[in-house]
TrEMBL record:
The gene is nhaA. It catalyses: Na(+)(in) + 2 H(+)(out) = Na(+)(out) + 2 H(+)(in). The chain crosses the membrane at residues 54-74, 95-116, 122-141, 150-171, 177-194, 201-219, 225-244, 256-275, 281-305, 317-342, 354-375. Belongs to the NhaA Na(+)/H(+) (TC 2.A.33) antiporter family. It is found in: Cell inner membrane; Cell membrane. Pfam families: Na_H_antiport_1. Keywords: Antiport, Cell membrane, Ion transport, Membrane, Sodium, Sodium transport, Transmembrane, Transmembrane helix, Transport. This is Na(+)/H(+) antiporter NhaA. It is a multi-pass membrane protein. Its main location: membrane.
Length: 388
């Protein structure tokens, strides 16, 4: 197996870094350092001449995270055009499994916390952190066939698409259509510049793309649509060659800076000094829906998908491998943390407990998936050794 010279381009180290950053944020939020750090995160920075006036925490979640979604969108486009989802035969099985991995966690969440102020949190347990899941697979899955990784990758990509739709549709507010229209024009200009960059490769065109991208982000952020959607639109329209180079250039920064900083800020919540029975239903719903809802939903729907796969589709995965993918799918983390912030932006106490639920639920899924993946990998290694 080829190992990247830069650990930030790998899968294991970024996953560990993300976990450490979240743990550090949670720790410092519950030590005497809380007040000083909270003052920094709540400090507002405005852009003169615009309506943008965000706290440091929101600059992280709306600004830095837009770069992450730009990279995600580039990966989505590649997989939809040249990768694991470029044909109906490839897409149908993970699509059915992904549907189960969304519908069942939603049902579990609503069953536990579907009334009152907590009801709006149902999108939170639908996400899968692809980087984290692939990191766990890389750590514990030595010996697993490549088809497991392919299935998980396609599953997580479809989850990303669903999460992006949720962010764009459910959490828009007071949309300013003129600003959004100007933002879409900015996306079109960005697309044209990316074509010119592909054809001519001039550095000034790249500089112009950066300027247009930043302006487009500002317009979308001011329009009432969540700012990360600007990153998604820009990533989807970028020409393939410049897009690939952009992804390669940004990958270490995203894995080594942007995601850990976001994880630190998102996990900076105070653990409530209450008994478990006094915790919000949102906490318990997420804790159950992420590991249990995902493994049940992906496992059940994945099993159905393997039984009804169309002619020409890839061979079906064993049910135990589908369960391994389902357990990995329960690691919601990055997008789930963002969804928790968006769903309960007006209810600080519920938001903090929902974030704790994401951390605990993702940790349970991490441990569970590590065990299942390790067992499956060991079984495959034993089979390989016996047949050699």
């Amino acid at each position: 197996m080829r190992i990247s010279a830069n650990p930030l381009r790998g899968q294991q180290f970024p996953a560990v870094l993300l976990l450490v950053a979240a743990g550090l944020g949670l720790l410092l939020a519950n030590l005497p350092t809380h007040d000083a750090l909270a003052a920094i995160l709540d400090f507002h920075i405005a852009v003169p001449g615009t309506g943008l006036d965000l706290s440091v925490a929101h600059w992280v979640s709306d600004g830095l995270l837009a770069v992450f979604f730009l990279v995600v969108a580039i990966e989505l486009r590649h997989e939809l055009t040249h990768g694991e989802l470029d044909s109906p035969q490839k897409a149908v099985q993970p699509a059915i499994a992904a549907a189960g991995g969304v519908l069942v966690p939603i049902a579990v969440y609503l069953l536990i916390a579907g009334s009152g102020d907590t009801a709006t949190g149902w999108p939170i347990p639908t996400a899968t952190d692809i980087a984290f899941a692939l990191g766990v697979l890389a750590m514990f899955g030595r010996g697993l066939p490549p088809t497991v990784r392919v299935f998980l990758l396609a599953l997580a990509i479809l989850d990303d698409i669903i999460g992006i739709i949720f962010i764009a549709v459910l959490f828009a507010h007071d949309v300013q259509w003129l600003l959004l229209g100007l933002g879409i024009i900015g996306v079109a200009v960005f697309w044209l510049l990316s074509r010119l960059l592909h054809e001519h490769g001039h550095a000034l065109i790249a500089v112009a793309m950066v300027i247009v991208g930043v302006v487009t982000w500002g317009l979308v952020a001011s329009s009432g649509i969540h700012a990360t959607i600007a990153g998604v639109m820009l990533g989807l329209v970028m020409s393939p060659v410049p897009a690939g180079r952009t992804r390669h250039a940004l990958e270490p920064t995203v894995n080594g800076v942007i995601l850990p900083v976001f994880a630190f800020v998102a996990a900076f919540v105070v653990i409530p000094a209450v008994s478990p029975t006094q915790l919000s239903p949102a906490f318990w719903a997420i804790v159950v829906a992420l590991p249990v809802g995902k493994i049940v939903g992906i496992g059940l729907f994945g099993w159905i998908a393997m039984r009804i796969r169309p002619k020409g589709a890839a061979p079906g995965l064993p049910f135990a491998d589908i369960l391994a993918a389902g357990a990995l799918g329960g690691i919601g983390f990055t997008v789930s943390l963002l969804l928790a912030n968006l769903a309960f932006g007006a209810h600080d106490e519920i938001r903090d407990q929902a974030i704790l639920g994401v951390l605990v639920g993702s940790l349970i899924a991490l441990v569970l998936s590590g065990i299942i993946v390790s067992l499956r990998a060991r079984w495959y290694r034993q089979v390989a050794a016996a047949s050699s």
